[in-house]
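Recap from last week: sequence in, structure out.
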Amino acid sequence: MLSLKDLSVSYDGSRILRNVSLTVPPGHVVCLMGRNGVGKTTTLKAIAGLVQPDAGSVKLGQTELVGLKPEHRARHGLGYVPQGRDIFPNLTVRENLRIGAIAQGKRINGEVDRVLELFPILKEMLPRKGGVLSGGQQQQLAIGRALLTNPKVLLLDEPTEGIQPNIIDHIGETIKKLRSDGFGHDSKEAIREANGKVRAEGKMGILLVEQYLDFCLEVGDSFYIMDRGSIVANGPVSELNDDMIKQHLTV
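Predicted structure tokens:
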């Protein structure tokens, strides 16, 4: 569903990403791993359109995203939850949830209810301003806001950072649900085959940047490891071995 091919990015003449290629299939959680400063967040920003690549391709399905503005990429089915969450602190939780969809001219219908099913704590917080929420509640709000754009692929940048363990567990369970069920009214019913089976295209692909190894092992299907702006290892999460961890992940 999402594919990067030979993506390169530079800042002020310094090469940050070097020929990065990866794929995120529908119904899969792909973990992008590596030490701090190796280019993981830059990769997500390049996919989302917040930085422009020097070379390479970013495709969502058959659509080339390079050259499109971030809002146009979102309309094609790309959801982005940045590191640090970036919720609107002076808007209420309800307003934060609605603003992403409204900005794209989408009708929300019952999708807010779906977000509140995934994150029940937000139901109690709807009239409160986003800035008074805890870090874990803000993270759930940021994910919920991104979901209201009905993404085909969701980009998550360090969703466990600074979050208490019980909310990390809840976010992990939510990621598993999104991987298998998608989100919104069209996630399954609209792609149901005549024989009653649901095609894989209805499932959400998730690209997860994460430092918390156990979290990746719990929710991930496959992994890519970055070092100095390049992909140096990849495969199923079950093949992530101690040598790779020691060489590329431990500090």
